[in-house]
Structures are given as structure tokens and as C-alpha cells.
């Protein structure tokens, strides 16, 4: 089974928002009981029929990015994107 664990997983014990992002990402990609998770669909050659194409490195890189979104820097990035989106919507 692919391990959806980020490169900086050691931070999860002291960074609760990073842990929440990491946990939710892992849940989506592992034990959903609905077949393949979103990473498998994103990386599949045929996006309607993902196979076991996700590598351990793919999973680690994706999990690292998702965990980063829960960090202070990642949250600032998300807020900047949302602010820009809301300004465009006016």
C-alpha cells in the first residue's frame, strides 16, 4: 500500500493544522472504501480508469504539498489566492 506521508511528517506532532491537512489527505487516498483516491485520478493516464500508477515518490510529494498548505506559509498562500479571487469577482 502506498504511504501518503509528507517529507516533513515530523512536524505533525507540533503543528495541528498541518496534521489535520495531512490526515484528511491520507483519508481521501487510503481507506475511503470507494476505490482510488484523488491522487490516483490526478495522475492516471486514463483519468476515468486509474490503475496502480501512483509511485511512493508521487504520494510523498503530494502529501508534502498538502501538509504545507496547513503551515503558516501555506495558509498565507491560500489567503492571498482567496483575496485575489474575491477582488476579481467584484
Q: What does this protein look like?
A:
By secondary structure, the protein is mainly alpha-helical. The protein is flat. The protein has one domain. The chain has four helices and no strands. α1 packs antiparallel against α3 (56-69). The mean pLDDT is 90. The longest helix is centred in the C-terminal third of the chain and has 17 residues, at 72-88. The chain has helices at 16-29, 38-43, 56-69, 72-88. The N and C termini lie far apart (46 Å).
Compile the SSE list and pairings.
Elements: H1 16-29, H2 38-43, H3 56-69, H4 72-88
Helix pairs in contact: 1-3
Can you summarize this structure?
By secondary structure, the chain is mainly α.
Amino acid at each position: 500500500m502506498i504511504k501518503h506521508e509528507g517529507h516533513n511528517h515530523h512536524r505533525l506532532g507540533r503543528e495541528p493544522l498541518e496534521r489535520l491537512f495531512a490526515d484528511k489527505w491520507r483519508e481521501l487516498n487510503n481507506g475511503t472504501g470507494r476505490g482510488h483516491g484523488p491522487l490516483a485520478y490526478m495522475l492516471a493516464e486514463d483519468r476515468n480508469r486509474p490503475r496502480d500508477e501512483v509511485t511512493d515518490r508521487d504520494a510523498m510529494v503530494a502529501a508534502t504539498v498538502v501538509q504545507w498548505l496547513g503551515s503558516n506559509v501555506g495558509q498565507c498562500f491560500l489567503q492571498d489566492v482567496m483575496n485575489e479571487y474575491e477582488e476579481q469577482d467584484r
